[in-house]
Design brief:
The chain has helices at about 25-30, 30-45, 70-85, 95-100, 115-135, 150, 165-170, 190; strands spanning about 10-15, 45-55, 55-65, 110-115. By secondary structure, it is an alpha+beta fold. Helix 2 (about 30-45) runs antiparallel to helix 3. The protein is globular and about 45 Å long.
């Protein structure tokens, strides 16, 4: 299934959830999750534009290589690599046991193809603001399991504009035209212009 894009690279927003809401396995085993991602990236490369890991949810934006639209296998590899390090969930159904599933993840995931640059920025913001929306922190930079601080532009030193001395003198002259006519000023405001 080939999807050509006239607006740029193939980018996607994904939401992956653990099978049990309220489980915190993603954070308890964050090093395994990171290692699983590194192994997946080594096998099937792509770019992670934004990512946030919450206790039971992952939100992420990816850019896939040109002419490579195989995100389902990448997600499957990532989830399988993570799951193999964990014991089977006690709440597995008989069907999951028969299929050899550990019951760690929801079987499906949410996927949205990014349409344009505005959609890309909006979804990256959604990813980075998700810990605040979940009530886990007050500011996105406070959440340690996010690419927010990696993606945030570095604070640049303020740039000071050099003003031509003649322009500065004109602004400071007594005969400069006030924004408000002086005859309308009364009371304390009038004293400011004296």
């Amino acid at each position: 299934m080939k999807r050509n894009s006239s607006h740029g690279p193939d980018r996607y927003f994904f939401t992956l959830r653990l099978a049990r809401r309220g489980d915190d396995a993603l954070l308890r085993h964050i090093s395994i999750l990171r290692q699983s991602m590194r192994e997946t990236l080594a096998r099937k490369p792509f770019q992670i534009n934004a990512i946030t890991v919450l206790p039971d949810v992952i939100h992420t934006v990816w850019t896939l290589p040109k002419d490579d639209h195989d995100y389902p296998n990448r997600i499957g590899m990532w989830k399988a690599r993570f799951s193999k390090h964990l014991p089977p969930a006690p709440h597995r159904s008989l069907q999951q046991i028969k299929r050899g599933e550990k019951g760690i993840w929801q079987r499906r995931f949410w996927e949205h193809r990014i349409r344009d640059q505005a959609d890309f920025r909006r979804h990256c913001d959604l990813v980075h603001l998700s810990p605040m929306h979940a009530g886990l922190c007050d500011r996105p930079e406070d959440w340690p399991f996010s690419s927010y601080n990696r993606n945030r532009p570095r604070q640049a030193a303020p740039k000071f504009e050099v003003v031509d001395q003649r322009e500065a003198d004109d602004v400071l002259e007594d005969n400069a035209t006030p924004l408000v006519p002086m005859d309308l000023l009364t009371g304390p405001l009038a004293r400011l212009h004296s």
